[in-house]
Design goal:
It is built from 11 helices and 12 strands. The strands form 3 sheets. It has a 6-stranded mixed sheet with strand order 6-9-10-3-11-12, with helices on both faces. A 4-stranded antiparallel sheet has the order 2-1-4-5, with helices on one face. Strands 7-8 form a two-stranded antiparallel ribbon. Helix 9 packs antiparallel against helix 10. It starts with 8 loop residues before the first strand and ends with a helix. It binds adenosine-5'-diphosphate and magnesium ion.
Length: 307
């Protein structure tokens, strides 16, 4: 990690209001070249709002945004892209029936010929798509196959390779592993590490602390629009991270609540033990392991939705 030079991007004391909703409140964070900065937080924590500010979709209501030490004021994602700040959204903006190489060059198609004979340069596109994917360690058999035939993880990697090829210095990934099973998530995490090896600064958004810990150099944790601060791996154990993110304190409270219900039911049933509630209370007490199960359960559920 290069701390001796300006971060690639940095926000200082940023707030964002939507009417009376405070989506972000006095948040600061930065990303350096060659590091993976994980942005963590539960649903509604403000992660998407923060990356929309970074990528030029929203303007901050308050605070500063610096790119390599210089204040910027982006009016659109195009402005951010011009500075090499590329965002890969979860829905990916790909056309499933079009080829991998077509999708790779979507919006900036290489052409051959002139005037009415100008056409998409298929062989150039195929060759670039294949070699760029190979650089990320993925072997595409046939770049002319439809993107829809790729797995979710591979599709994410096409989007990442595309951003890198078009000169991204900062790569922002919004929950790239959220809808993936364990193995496919592993594929994406590997590309995240590859991007870092190529000296790109990566902002990796997730609500899965295990995915974050697998690749992150630093971690910024958001909760209800505020930040707990930024931590290095040395400063934050995986257990502490899970606790901060999953609101383990709230789980404890909920578990006590359920125990109380179980006791009341037991009394009402004259000594017969109420099973369901005490079971739930016990699994909630398990805390971290229960979080792991939940995370995997969600991934599994989403995977079935995926085509
Ligand atoms: N365009 C918007 N208008 C009003 N409220 C919004 C808007 N975008 C986000 N919010 C609110 O800001 C908060 C943070 O949302 P978001 O950044 O999407 O969280 P996350 O991505 O961490 O789940 C939520 O309470 C959400 O309802
Ligand atoms: Mg979000």
């Amino acid at each position: 990690m290069a701390t001796n030079q300006n971060p690639l991007i940095e926000v200082l004391g940023v707030s964002k209001y939507f009417g009376s909703v405070i989506a972000l409140n006095d948040v600061s964070m930065s990303v350096h070249a060659g590091e993976v900065m994980c942005l963590l937080g539960d649903n509604g924590a403000g992660k998407s709002t923060l990356i929309k500010i970074l990528s030029g979709v929203h303007k901050p209501s308050e605070g500063k945004y610096l790119v390599e030490g210089t204040p910027v004021d982006f009016n659109s994602p195009r402005d951010a892209l011009a500075y090499g700040i590329a965002t890969v959204y979860q829905d990916l903006a790909m056309i499933p029936l079009m080829s991998i190489s077509r999708n790779f060059f979507l919006g900036s198609e290489p052409t051959v010929g002139w005037g009415p004979f100008r056409r998409f340069n298929v062989s150039f596109a195929n060759q670039v798509a294949r070699s760029e994917m190979a650089k990320m360690g993925i072997d595409i058999r046939d770049p002319s196959q439809p993107v829809g035939t790729l797995s979710g993880g591979e599709r994410q990697s096409v989007a990442i390779a595309r951003a890198v090829y078009f000169g991204a210095k900062v790569l922002i990934l919004d929950e790239p592993t959220a809808a993936l099973g364990v193995k496919q998530a592993g594929v994406v995490l590997r590309y995240v590490a590859q991007a870092r090896a190529r000296n790109i600064g990566v902002v990796f958004i997730t609500h899965n602390p295990h995915h974050a810990y697998a690749v992150g150099d630093r971690f910024t944790i958001l909760k209800r629009g505020r930040t707990f601060g930024t931590f290095t791996r040395a400063e934050l154990s995986r257990e502490e991270m899970v606790r901060m993110m999953s609101g383990a304190d709230e789980l404890d409270a909920l578990s006590h609540e359920l125990e109380e219900f179980a006791r009341e039911d037991a009394e009402a049933n004259a000594g017969r033990l109420s099973s369901a509630e005490s079971d739930m209370a016990h699994s909630l007490e398990a805390g971290e392991s229960m979080y792991g199960r939940t995370a995997r359960g969600q991934a599994g559920a989403k995977r079935t939705d995926e085509r």
